[in-house]
Amino acid sequence: MRHRLAVASFVIATAIAVAVWLQPSRDSGGRLEAAGSHDPSLDLAATADSRSFALKDQYGHAVTDESYRGEWLIVFFGFTHCPAACPTTLSKLAAALDELGTNGEHVRVALITVDPERDAPEVLAKYLEPFGPRFVGLTGTTDQLAAATRVFRAYSQQQPASADGAYDVQHSTHLYLVGPDGRFRRQLSADATAGELAATLSKSIASS
User: Taking the model in full, what pTM does it have?
Assistant: First the structure.
């Protein structure tokens, strides 16, 4: 009897552990993101030296990761209809770059859309204009964007549309810092303040 109870307890505990591991978790922007294989907190530096992509910028020009060689590149996945996480993060990045002063002139922010249906190049251009010329918006075909998402191990998932056709997109909000040589350097937290982001970027630039 005791043996059966022990086995039953083990099975229940295992089931609970698996359920907890599989359940969605909240990202730093308050959205849901899948746990496990889609977890953006993985150590990317241990799996790849560079972050490559082939997309189109807000002016309709074809670009790849090589287009930004010689500059520090901060990659962020988001979309123009994002209600809070995206504009807040972009605003903090703009303030951080201003705080860097002349060092900020060598840093560029790339917003890769997770909502290509609504984020045409001209839409991205208008959305990013207030943040300054160091911000670029990138889009592409479904396959191109899926490839870029896989490269950075980011996560996005379009949600079912409501009766009026409106829909949301769940997505990870981590920032990915790529060096001037195209090598991935580190993740940056969207929860960080502008001052903290500036300090981390300054340290990374100084150590390169």
Answer: 0.75
